[in-house]
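Record YeeE/YedE family protein, 145 aa.
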Amino acid sequence: MHLILIYLIGVVFGTGIVVSGMANPAKVINFFDVAGSWDPSLAFVMGGALIVAAIGYRLVFLRGRPIFEGKFMLPTARNLDARLIGGSAVFGVGWGIAGFCPGGALPALGTGRTEVILFVIAMLGGIFAAKYLQSLSRPKAQAAS
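=>
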């Protein structure tokens, strides 16, 4: 049952991405082109998603605990560090250049377009490179403490 729910949630998310046009990199790039052919529809998609998420979180937290876990696993870090700011910057620059974010690229894989496949391969390469670089810095941090 757990996997079926995960699948259905993914289908709803992917359908929303496709229906809203966010799987189309040209539409996303036009959102960032404020001096040219600006398309504000992405702001409405993000605003709608924010409203749905806010309502959803309120309803979920009323339950007291998740359905498939013993407790909610929420982030505890509140500080802005170089990793967070740098990662956000890389994400934003990549999104602006390619017109894809991970959430939009995965449903767009179904189109079979070469640029989507290349983006996902590059994204996975970036994830593995970041994990590798993180593993190199961990021994130094552990030795210091």
